[in-house]
Amino acid sequence: MRTKSTNLLQAVVLFSGISYVLIGILFYISPLMVLQFFVDNVSESWIDLVRENELVAPLYYVTRGFAALLFSAGLSMVMPLFDPLKYRGMIYYNGVIFPFMSALLLMKNSVFFIFFNKQPDAESASGILSLIGRFHGHMVVLILGIIFTLIFILSAIGLGVTRKQARAGVE
Q1: What was the pLDDT predicted at 55?
Q2: Deepest of 1, 82, 106, 119, by most Cβ within 10 A of its Cβ?
Q3: How far is CA 20 from CA 16, 51, 114, 151, in A?
Q4: 2: helix, strand or coil
Q5: Would you call 120 helix, strand, or coil by DSSP?
Q6: 20-24, 46-50, 57-61, 126-130: which is most confident
Q7: DSSP one-letter string for 34-93
Q8: Of all helices (H) and strands (E), which one includes residue 126?
Q9: Stated pTM of the model
């Protein structure tokens, strides 16, 4: 019989697994398709850049390769659902370490870019509503940073709540 704390941990594992699978599938199929949701104007010569440019082409294919890794990590999160005690290490790696490192990188760069990027008429704007109106930046980076931060926090809480049970060898 599973306890409520184990069920909480399993819900967190399920959330992170589904998030990884969805993000992995979307970026593997086409990183450009995902980015078009967040960008108003995409250059028509984008596909030529992917074929020919020595910077853009490797970035495109490396992104798809990392998406495959994220997809497989999401699929592997099925194992802790059946035996959370045995696969606790996997939860630490896929639910705490990876999202922490990713969130740190993504949030640092997106928040820095959004709030410290000089915008026209920034001096004349005041108040929180005008700040939101001037919100410019890489939204996909910010959203992924928020998702990974959420996964990190929830996984850390789930592992912390079940720590005593894990030491006792009880699920």
Answers
A1: 83
A2: 106
A3: 6, 28, 25, 10
A4: coil
A5: coil
A6: 20-24
A7: HHHTT-S---TTHHHHHHH-TTHHHHHHHHHHHHHHHHHHHHHTTHHHH-TTTTHHHHII
A8: none
A9: 0.82
